[in-house]
Amino acid sequence: MPVNPEAVGRQYGPSEVYEVTRVKIREFADAVDARSFAHRDVAAARAEGYDDLVAPSTFAVVIAQRAEFHVVVDPEVGVDFSKVVHADERFTHHRPIVAGDEITTTIHIDKITQRAGISMVTTRAELADAEGDPVTTVLSTLAVREDA
Amino acid sequence: MSDENLPSFDALEVGAVVAEREVAFTRDTLVRYAGASGDFNPIHYNDVMAESVGLPGVIAHGMLTMGAAASVVEEWAGPGNVADFQTRFTRPIPVPNPGVATVVVTAKVGALDEELRTARIDVVVDFDGVKVLGKAQAIVPCA
């Protein structure tokens, strides 16, 4: 079943709260070879002007991808996950993510284009903190092959 | 952003390389990233699954490549100072077993915005002479 272009404008969430922990920031920093002590040591993070450990630049994907999963499993959208390739990604930080943040995410399907047997599905994840203030916007495009 | 550690705007020149690093991907690196990110797509650890969808074998997560590239920029910009980072994923990086796939990440000043005092940092990730990311650009506020 092909991707349904009428799914544009669909919205999912706000998600349950994602609690940003020091342990997860350290683990992610190790995984992407982010070397600053501000990702690992609270005193080092405070010396850089943060209240707690600061997350590496692409950490928001941990939170966004969980929320984007709603799009992939929505039968009304029709994405076959076995035919998906990640086409592009963009993070726009309204402020850095730090340990202790409680993030809720709302997903929007911004765009679906279809050409030459490939559907491009662009989602926008809006991450907000406990006060409802914007933290990060994550744009992500999946390319879905429509062959049989 | 933390103002204390921003790069100095006046010291920057368009075209200058601000950071460069070799990054080595192994199966271990991929499994570690899968666990840290929660992305357990089997094409990143299972050769049979990867080949069944037409890949030459297990490939690195695009987001691992992007994350490693961001780390190179962030090490120069200061922690938490990459305000925006975007890329397209243009080529997969097959990761052998056993063995290692080594990429070279180069970050250059692409443009300077006098008014906003921001630098656009253009990032190239080279794997065996081929660029694996397209239009990889970071925006870094400067002091």
- Helix fraction of chain A, binned, reads 10-25%
- Secondary-structure-based class of chain A equals alpha+beta
Q: Could you state the oligomeric state of the chains shown?
A: heterodimer
Major sheet details of chain A: 6 strands, antiparallel
Q: How many separate domains make up the residues of chain A? A: 1
Mean pLDDT of chain B: 96
Return the CATH topology of chain A: Thiol Ester Dehydrase, Chain A
Low-confidence runs of chain A: none
* Whole-number mean pLDDT of chain A: 95
Total beta strands of chain B: 6
Rg of chain A, nearest Å: 17 Å
Straight-line distance between termini of chain A: 9 Å
3D architecture notes:
The complex is a heterodimer of chains A (148) and B (143). Chain A is α+β, with helices and mostly antiparallel strands. Helices cover 20% and strands 34% of the residues of chain A. Chain A is built from 3 helices and 6 strands; from the N terminus they run ββαααββββ. In chain A, strands 1, 2, 3, 4, 5 and 6 form a 6-stranded antiparallel β-sheet that branches. In chain A, a hairpin with a 5-residue loop joins strand 5 and strand 6 (134-145). Chain B is of the alpha+beta class. Chain B has 3 helices and 6 strands. The chains are: A alpha+beta (148), B alpha+beta (143). Chains A and B meet through helix 1, helix 3 and strand 3 of A and helix 1, helix 3 and strand 2 of B. Strand 3 (84-93) of chain A pairs antiparallel with strand 2 (84-89) of chain B, so a sheet runs across the interface.
